[in-house]
Fold this sequence. Notes:
The chain is of the alpha+beta class. Among the domains are: about 10-150, Heat Shock Protein 90 (2-Layer Sandwich); about 300-450, Histidine kinase-like ATPase, C-terminal domain (Heat Shock Protein 90, 2-Layer Sandwich), CATH 3.30.565.10. It has ten helices and twelve strands. It has helices spanning about 5, 20-35, 40-60, 100, 135-145, 150-255, 265-295, 310-320, 345-360, 415-425; strands at about 10-15, 65-70, 75-85, 105-115, 115-125, 305, 330, 340-345, 365-375, 380-385, 430-435, 440-450. The chain has a five-stranded antiparallel beta sheet. Keywords: Coiled coil, Kinase, Phosphoprotein, Transferase, Two-component regulatory system. It catalyses: ATP + protein L-histidine = ADP + protein N-phospho-L-histidine. It comes from Micromonospora arida. GO terms for molecular function: phosphorelay sensor kinase activity.
Amino acid sequence: MIGEPAALPLLQMALRVEQDIFVIRQRGREVAAVVGLEHQDQVRIATALSEVARDLLRTTGGADVSFHVDSGADGRFHLRADLAPVSPLPDDRYQPQSGAVSRLVDTLSVSTVEGVTVVRMSRRVPANAPAPTPERLAEFRTELGRTAPGSALDELTVQNGQLIGALDEVRSQRDELAVLNEELAETNRGVLALYNQLTEELEETNRGVVALYAELDEKSAQLRAASESKSRFLANVSHELRAPVTAIIGLGRLLTDSASDPLTEEQGRQVDLIRSSATDLLNLVNELLDLAKAESGRIEPELAEVDLRPVFGQLRGTLRAVATRPEVELVVEEPTGPALLRTDEVLLGQVLRNLLHNGLKFTERGEVRLRASQNGDRWQFEVSDTGPGIAPELHDRIFEEFYQIPGATRVGGTGLGLPYARRLVTLLGGTLGLTSAPGEGSTFTVSLPSGGA
């Protein structure tokens, strides 16, 4: 509570007759306006004053009314009105119109101040109102002292105007609320329709996804079955073909043996052609059988420490006979120093042999070169040639089974060497890549981990 302003009231009045109720209401509204309360709060505290004053006039015969400005614990200023009855209140539980009046003010209570019982009510002053300093309060008292209270008829006129304004405001709010309710209902109908539409579309999409997954599962099962059937077919056919082809080669060798009856020159040429064709057919059968084993997962790498130098030496010796063109040189660069790699020596030899053989087939002049280098924890094997090169759009296709590059450079073969080499490299835990362009030759790169798959 501030010192002098709280002790010295802004205004004092007496409630003795019915007409005083209208005066108290009028002056209460004026005091609220002077201290800075908003219009609605002015009407609220004036209405609360008139209701309590009417109750006290009926039960106690009147009261002394005073208005004060206090500073509350919340840091805000409050307009306080005290109504001290001229005779004792009916009982200690007296609560004047507490149910209705208490909603019009911030506080409403019956208190005893310096031995005097008073009915006290208060309303917070807006934070943006001027601070009620002692000088400012003195100005308030002077301003209120200059105004004289109006008649009951004037107050009734003002009160009726306020009531009409409140009714108009309520009516306006009711109309706005009706419009908002209608807009909300329309929005809800739209949201519901959109939700239903989205739900139907989502259910339709889900049904399509389920059907698609079922179809994909069926196709996957069919593909797995087809792949297994193909692998079994290749394995069975290869086994069945190997025996008669081997027999044809053996019989051809017997026909040309010096211990057999001599053949004519034409017969010898025909037998050599049979033996050559049978050898090619046996190579094809062996490749089919190897591919069938790789696809069925029956090849298990046997990892061991492998010295690359003997492997490279063996490749140089076995492939020297394949390099029949004098215009093509086979170069095998043996690694210097210790060249140890944990891998399957047989499978690695097959991969490098296939790549070198592929380069020798397609290179008409220049060289086919094999080199190896260690980069961190991986070994890189490069097989490069000076052949015609491969267009970028065919880099993936050459690893397809039975595919051969079309054109004038096409030579004999099955188209199984590169797919088989890539499968073996994958079994060894590595990768097989290609760098090539038309007219610039090709380089196949095998990357294997040093520690094995």
